[in-house]
Amino acid sequence: MTKGGKDQMSEKVIRAIQDDYADDYAWCYGCGRLNKEGYHLRTGWDGEQTVTIYQPRPEHMAIPGFVYGGLIASVIDCHGTGSASLALHRKNGYEPGEGIEPPRFVTASLHVDFIKPTPHDIPLKAVGTIEEIHPKKWKIHTKVFADDVCCAKGEVVAAVMPKTFAQG
Amino acid sequence: MTKGGKDQMSEKVIRAIQDDYADDYAWCYGCGRLNKEGYHLRTGWDGEQTVTIYQPRPEHMAIPGFVYGGLIASVIDCHGTGSASLALHRKNGYEPGEGIEPPRFVTASLHVDFIKPTPHDIPLKAVGTIEEIHPKKWKIHTKVFADDVCCAKGEVVAAVMPKTFAQG
Question: Within an 8 Å CB–CB cutoff, is residue A60 touching chain B?
Fold first, then answer.
């Protein structure tokens, strides 16, 4: 399992799957590049694992000094759908940055175990391990690190976006 | 189980437990009344159940027309800690609005099942049922309604805030 650590915290995800989402599906508050107010979470490969890095905003506190749990849940959520998209895209023969529109996933379920209070002043690094449970349904096991401390663990079941979602 | 519905959606929580949190613990991005940028979630009793009502901001979308899952998770999270605080406060003989500082909880775990795409243009209503699993640990079962449609179900295990948290 890749850990965090100060050196890795200065990493940036170079080729993120969200950069290739179709414009119609790039509005998510968590990970949509077109949502001006959003977090712009970006998820890429690190070998066989996936990585999302995010610096919480000053206001994202639970109490002063510690990150708000809802933000951690949000990072795990979008990291999960992004990871599933990366995985199915790779299974289909593609990598991010190749200009091919990847499949877009939605979250069926989200679970978070908050292990330790999460310090607020350093970037969070979510590291995901992907499990295919069906061609259209993937499970992503995620650990969230602040420096090299694992502060939360998450599990997302992500499903290919159903047509009903796009009819809104 | 209390449902949502248009009439109830115009409800407002009158006496919220978050109004009574000590100033030091009123900074949460989700439910802290002192966090200027936050959601200001407010949780109160409705009989033996608890209620939190929130109108998502325009930017809180997954795709246009539907609410971003991370926000739903955040509502369930703070609704859970607020509900646990209400429950232990009541067990101790107090109700919100009596000027007594309630116990402050943190989230140990959060689970969300996203059942249906959640429409963006109406307030969300979280309705919680509380289960005591230990004097300092409570489980909150929550349904999130948009109008009278249950769009998500959640489960939070909330624990009395440990001293380590306040030493940040």
Answer: yes
pTM for this structure? 0.93
For residue A134, give how far its alpha carbon lies from the nearest alpha carbon of chain B (Å). 18
**Residue B167 and residue B76: Cα distance in Å, rounded?**
26
Alpha carbons B78 and B60: distance in angstroms, whole number: 17
Residues of B in contact with A57 (CB under 8 A): 37
Decide if A138 contacts A130 (C-beta within 8 A): yes
pLDDT tens-place string over residues A115-163: 999 999 999 999 999 999 999 999 999 999 999 999 999 999 999 998 7
Inter-chain contact A106–B69, Cβ cutoff 8 Å?
A: yes
Residue B23: count of CB within 10 angstroms of its CB: 10
Tell me if A28 sits within 8 A of B62, measured CB to CB: yes
Name the band, by pLDDT with cuts 50, 70 and 90, for residue A10: low
Of A38, A117, A168, the CB nearest to B65: A168
The tokens describing B21, both together, are: 């949190």
Burial of residue A49, with CB atoms counted within 10 A of its CB: 0-12 exposed, 13-18 middle, 19 or more buried: middle
SS3 call for B134: strand
Helices of type H across A3-68: 6-9
**A139 three-class SS:** strand
